[in-house]
Amino acid sequence: LWRFGYSARLLKTNHFRTAASNTSFPAVWMLLAQYSGTIPARFVVVKKNRFFTMTETVPETHKANLELYSPHPEVRGMTLLNRAAFKRTVVVPVLKVKKEVVNTLLKSLKHTVLQRPGLKRVVEDPEDEDSRLVILDPHKIPEFSLGELEQEVLKQLNVRPEVSKYNLELTYENFKSEEILRAVLPEGQEVTSGFSRVGHIAHLNLRDHQLPYRYLIGQVIIDKNPGITCVVNKTNIIDSTYRNFQMEVLAGESNLVTKVKESNIAYELDFSKVYWNPRLSTEHSRIVELLKPGDVLFDVFAGIGPFAIPAAKKKCRVFANDLNPESYSWLLHNCKLNKVDNKIKAFNMDGRDFLLGPVREELSKELPLLKEEQKTSFHIVMNLPALAIEFLDVFRHLLVGEPCSTAGLPTVHCYGFSKHDDPAKDIQERAEASLGTSLAGRCSTYLVRNVAPSKEMLCISFHIPADVLYKRPCP
């Protein structure tokens, strides 16, 4: 320790006693090095599992400095954004340092120096052009008093260990969106800073108590998220025939035609007229990964093509349908955009009519020709969680004739919502009721996402049982 200029009493400080008590000697050197910026050569190599992470707590004396992360209290209740009202001045500790040692000091005291995005850590010294003021984190310097550890580091750098007070001006630009909204909304109420991003659009689902502040919330999201130029709020649930919803533009431009990218595939859409949920990207990829080149995909509720287009790019034959004329139009547009328009047959029909028409026709033609050695698989995707399970009764005696081989039976991937205590069991029982048969041991359920605190979205996958799919001719 003496060789590197440290007093042995460093290890007696409270800061190190806890860390060093059950930590190897090399690990203690690593802790020292965090503050000194220097690691003795013989201890450079330390095994990964020997690092020790200390949990930092904020003492009561530090809580007075929390205004560093809080806008001016007078903004509480603001409904129209006034950026100037967020300005405030706080007192922070600083060290006066010669210019030539500033960089070394920043490395040596990196856990003590202020680390706040958007705020300078080093400012000009108004009294000495050869010096700089290094701003320290007020949470780490209680009562503007340096600890023994910091004092020893400064001693090695020949820096006077005297902490001064500095008036730091904070503005709207220095606060994060969550901090701004927490300061504005009534205390104790939920703060919304999360959103779904669809191209240049931020999509919110605001609660009732947040609605009076919706225009302010929208503008804050635009200010704090580069690339977002439009913020919308859903005004009712998705219960229309075409799966779109009414929305209100809260801030920014009213252009709702946007571009998105998912799994390196580009899509264009009018967000106000078609359904698109960026949270389903993983599910789209999961289903497409099940397909092999040459397989056949029937997408009953295709939307703008997030299942159909990547499947076509995988050299599958695709039949895609959507009842919404806008979705159908954008589906055709995106097929051309991704150069798969010659690989996808698109339909603008009711889902039931699509299953009873094009799907039945294709299966009636293809399945009898299927040989045991052929490996073509047929997949039917039904992604309309609110209603899709009710469509499963269509498969009852959809085809006439003798059943094909078990391997050739189509696989259905049907989505549904559940508020049941056992959502997997609930989805299976409802599917069985529609099909008129048991799926025990013949299906799998997959949890797609949590929609609400007591509402899950699931996917149930199964081969359509032969006795359900086929109506055998009378002898």
Automatic annotation (TrEMBL):
InterPro entries: MeTrfase_TRM5/TYW2, SAM-dependent_MTases_sf, TRM5-TYW2-like_MTfase, TRM5/TYW2-like_N, tRNA_Gua_MeTrfase_euk
Stored Gene3D superfamilies: Met-10+ protein-like domains, Vaccinia Virus protein VP39
Keywords: Cytoplasm, Methyltransferase, Mitochondrion, Nucleus, S-adenosyl-L-methionine, Transferase, tRNA processing
Catalytic activity from the UniProt record: guanosine(37) in tRNA + S-adenosyl-L-methionine = N(1)-methylguanosine(37) in tRNA + S-adenosyl-L-homocysteine + H(+)
Cellular component aspect of the GO annotation: mitochondrial matrix
A Pfam short name: TRM5-TYW2_MTfase
Annotated GO biological process: mitochondrial tRNA methylation; tRNA N1-guanine methylation
Any one GO molecular function term: tRNA (guanine(37)-N1)-methyltransferase activity
PROSITE patterns referenced in this protein's UniProt entry, alphabetically: SAM_MT_TRM5_TYW2
Domain annotation SAM-dependent methyltransferase TRM5/TYW2-type: ranges: 195-466
HAMAP family: TRM5
Function of the protein: Involved in mitochondrial tRNA methylation. Specifically methylates the N1 position of guanosine-37 in various tRNAs. Methylation is not dependent on the nature of the nucleoside 5' of the target nucleoside. This is the first step in the biosynthesis of wybutosine (yW), a modified base adjacent to the anticodon of tRNAs and required for accurate decoding.
Family of the protein in this entry: Belongs to the class I-like SAM-binding methyltransferase superfamily. TRM5/TYW2 family.
Protein name according to UniProt: TRM5 methyltransferase
Species assigned in the record: Dromas ardeola
Gene: Trmt5
